[in-house]
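The aim of this short unit is practical: by the end, you should be able to scan a pair of folded records and say something sensible about each. We start with the first protein, listed as its amino acid sequence and then its structure tokens.
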Amino acid sequence: MWRALFLVLYLAVSAVHLYGCLKKDQTVRNITKPLLMPLLAGFYIFAAPSIEWMVVLLIATSWLGDLLLMLKGMKWFITGGVSFLGTHVLLVILYLRNISFSYEGLIVALLYILMGAGLLRTEQKWLKRYMPKPTIWMMIAYLAGNITMNLFAALQAVSSLNGGSVLILLGALLFLASDSLLFMVRFDKKLPFYGQHFNVMLTYTLAKLLIVLGFVFG
């Protein structure tokens, strides 16, 4: 009962938040965004067969990152990124225990390195139009952390292919998509619809739900 309640509330609040993003209603966004991760944590606590407190902690670091990104100013944006980097580190630690290195894993790693290098280069070219080099490299370092988390999620899926690891990998990819879009949305206010906050938060809310579902059913 409780897990269903928290899941329904998470989906409902996510829908309202996305509506606020679509309508560019800052009040709705400010009210709903701080509720997302606590509701997701509640779902996990009641749904998981046994609670892994590191999962609760990574949800908490994401919640802190959400709050920090709501504040105005580059220092809060960077601090929020540090909090989300903590989320990625915790995820990698959780993935590591399920990874056994193999030739298939090596191929996956090479593909991710190529994909990551291309993405980082693209983001670097785009960001240099909006900020000085030291700030750019901090952004690129954060994105590299997300790509690394994705790599280990893929290695986990290759090593232990099941419904949970596939859900986590899909969530990780959406998390990367959300972060990549966020950089553009944050600094370029003239982007068309596909680059607006709606898409950042749609991919983010789905990403976090899929990752948590992966830990519940894995």
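Turning to the second protein, read its sequence before its tokens, just as you did above.
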Amino acid sequence: MGTGTGIGRVRGLGSAKHGAMHWWRQRVTAAGNLILVLWFVISLFRLPLHDYATITTWMASPLVAVALILMTVSVFWHLRLGMQVFIEDYVHEEGGKVASMLALNFYAIAGGALAIFSILKIALLGVKG
């Protein structure tokens, strides 16, 4: 049984290929996080000042805004993948597992969406004082 039972696929207990893809996605997002967070920290250190006006002007640059959005997506996706493994390993009751996964998905999507909205608002509209 390479693909598992029907109920196994619904519960995420399908073939081992799913686990390998999950592992690969964690590594890819970790590498993306390393590159993007390193860029972020170095970019902040290179700014002449760290006041509100300087940071928002820096964020308004299209290249910076796109990189910040990519970093946000990568960080929240990586967080979701890692916490999914934690929930699958340590939450044993089926109801608790489903509730935890729903909460995790809501947090990851809402947090990422709020961050992306904030970046776009600054990049496209600027921020008034």
